[in-house]
Structures are given as structure tokens and as C-alpha cells.
Amino acid sequence: MRYVYGITSALLMGGTALALVTQSPVIAQVAQNESSEIAKAVPRAGAPESFADLVEQLQPAVVNISTKQEVTLGVRLDPFAGTREPVTQEQQGGGSGFLISDDGYIVTNNHVVTGGPRGDAVNLVSVTLTNGKEYKARIVGRDVASDLALLKIDATGMPFVKFGDSAKARVGDWVVAIGNPLGLGSTVTAGIISAVQRNLGGGGAYDRYIQTDTAINRGNSGGPLFDLHGNVVGINNMLISPVGANIGVNFAIPAEAAIPVINALKSGEKIERGYLGIGIAPVDEDLAAALGLPKERGEFVQRVEDDGAAAKAGLKRGDVVTKINGKDVTPSQTLSYLVANTKPGTRIPIEVVRDGKTLTLNAVIGTRPPEEQLAGTSFDPEDEQAMPDDPKGTADTTIQTELGLAVQTLTPDIARAIGVDTGTKGLVIGAASANSDAGRKGLRRGDVIVTANRAPVTSSDALAKVIADAKKAGRDAVLLEILRRGGPSAFIAIRIKS
Predict the structure, then answer these.
(1) Which class for 273: exposed (0-12), middle (13-18), buried (19 or more C-beta within 10 A)?
(2) What angle do CA 148, 149, 153 make, to 5 degrees?
(3) How far is CA 87 from the centre of its chain?
(4) What is the pTM of this model?
């Protein structure tokens, strides 16, 4: 589940997911929640005297998930051989999931099958059914934004469940959760829906949850939340707790949000989300007072990307977006949520307030770039960062070990953020160790390495090769050409760590 301690959130083990039921071409299977026994288990109104008959039908389709992942902790020097080798550690994790087809497709949370600080897929996934049978599973697809993942086991004739219509879920409805809390094995809890469409302030396309007081703990992540008809209305995802354990404030991703993502993962389609290309801020009390607008209505445009959908529509810095496609922009219905859930290519009206006047602009929604590309738009050269504990790859490890630098490829977005020409090619420094020669000579976050030993470097591999060639030639330093905002490039010799 994912836990939130006050205003600080910590990823633990929870999730969301949905998918369509597929039928075996050989033997027609019946979903566990489609049995006539379900009608007998639950009366037409109110809660049953016991959930036992309902659980008996549903529990076989819920699985426990165990994972293993090799994580690089650092680099060890062999003083006798003069070589370095990575130091790794096996990390174990787990969570819950549920079968959505008789041929072995399983839905869970992405973070259940994610390992290490970079969010890589784990090396090994195994699932265990309630009858104790264990299967190796492969990851069919993962989606970070929605925190959903789809797994597959090689089996047929599996018990499975179907999704219900979470849009019909009402506050006060009874719900049942089945999962693997705290590694105890299949466990059942029940409660009611406390709220629907709960906005937790995270922004984006999936910041809408079903809130429930059903007991959820670490390990319930990815498990199903059932209504009393036995349909999956949500995927258990996170809880809020000041003590790290369940206090009755828990959240599940609604089925209606998860189904399209799971269907796309199953078919191998690219998941596309809407994008305007603007930086925004909420209209808080002070900003509203400065602009003469009602507070908590609309969002303020801080930045407009060149050639983006917003720029082409005529949006400008300082505009306040109040409506998207006829829907009000509010703290509970954010601009990010509305845009991300609009299909790319759709032409929509956008209502803005500019200099006290209301205008309507028309925009063709763009496609949201990959998350790693978006990370470049928020690169802050003044934000001092420590060296990463787990470099991304062999080349990054070499650069971090030999030069005491963490680098990444310079993109036009990062170039704009650090104040250099967007056509500049090179590597931007993300962090510099204070104990390295580079740190002592003043290299810092936001500096750009243009060349190394006179050779252009636009990737970590290229710089690592220059370092390796220098060592092979018996040199103990490399000549870096450094570009910093506001001045010409300069050459600085940086010693290679011996």
C-alpha cells in the first residue's frame, strides 16, 4: 500500500487496476462473481448477515504476489586487482492482485512489481492462489501514471472476476476487500464507501479515488475492492495514517479509471493522455486578491511552452484558466485532471480570464510526453541535489565513481531552464560530489559538459568511453569543456579518481 503520514506520503504497497474478461476458446468459463450463488449470498437491500457465501465465490480469484529484485547499492574497489565491481542486494516485496480472465491475466499496482530507486521492473514475480498453487508470472505491461500493471501466468481454466461500474458506487455502500496484508496470506475485510471521486491533491489524470473505511494495510496493494454483487469497483491503493497502520481512511482506484489502462496494456497499445504544454499554479487566496478573482476557482498560467497546444491556441502567461470544454476548473476538478482525460487531437474551448476580461480560446489537445522528458521541464539549477545512491547504468556508475558527477543528456527544456541556447548539445550536471576534484574546482548542478578531451559528449556512454580511453593511455585527468549560463565555455582539467 501507499501510506500518507500527515502531509508526507510514503510508497508502501497499494494499487489500482481493471480489465475486460476474456473467454477461453475451448471451454466457456464463468466468472466467480457471475455465479447464481452471488444472488443467494446477498439480499436485495442492506448487508447480508454474513459475507461468507460472497467471499467463498470471490476469494479463489484473488492472488498473493511476491517479488524479488537485484538493486545496485554502490561500487566496491578491489585493492589488489585494482578493479571496481557493483555491490548489489536482493530486495523482496509483494502485494495483491486478481485474475480477470480464465487464461491467467492478473491486475495489480505498478508499485507492487517495481523495485529499486529508479522504478525498474522487478526481476522475478510469482503469484500464489488460495489453494496454495504457485506460478511464475511475467509483466505484460506497466503504467506509472495510473500505478497499474498487468501480469500473465501460463494457465487456463483459472477462476476470475469481472469489473463493475464504479460510477454507480454511492457513499454508504458496503464493500469487501480481499488481499495479502502484512504477508499474512489471503485476508478479508469489509466496510463502507466513505467518499467517491476523492481528490488527494496530486494532480494528473488519476487523482480520483474511492475512499473507504475497509481495513487496508501494507500488502493489500493491487487487491480488489468488491461491491455486494461481487463486482470489482476499485483497486486498493493507499491509506492515510499518522502511525503507518490502518485507521479507516483508505483509497482505491475506481474501476472506470483503470479499465482503459488495463485494456491498453493488454493489447500492447500506447497509453496516450492529453497535454496543453503549460505550467500552472492554483489560485489561492493571495493570488485571487491580487487578480480580483474568486479564490479556488481556475488555475494561473505560469509558463507556456513554445509550439505547444496552449501556445497555438493563444494562451499567455498570466492567464487564469477557469473552464475546460465547459467544465469548471476547481480544486476538486483540476486543470491537469481535465486535460489529461481528454483524448489527444480533440478540439475544445478553453475559458480564460485575462486582464479582468473573460475570453474563450480553442485548443487542439496535444499528447503528453514521456515522464522522463517532462522531468526536464522542471529542472531547477538552484535546487541542490545529492549524488544518486543508485546510478542508472554502467556508464553512469563510471562517471559518478571516476569524476564524482551525476549527468544527464541536455534537452531543449533543460537548456531553457538553465539559461543556455536550446540548440546546445552536451551533458548537464545534475549533482557534483563536494569531495571530488570536480566539486573542489567549482563544477555544480546546471553546468553543461560540451566536450571531453575535445570530443563532443551527448550521452553518458560517450563520456564514460573518454574516461576509459584516458585511463588506458595512462592519463589521470580528463579535459572538460564546461558551459555555464551567462558566459563563454571554459576548459577545466578534472582528475580521475584513482
Answers:
(1) buried
(2) 150
(3) 27
(4) 0.70
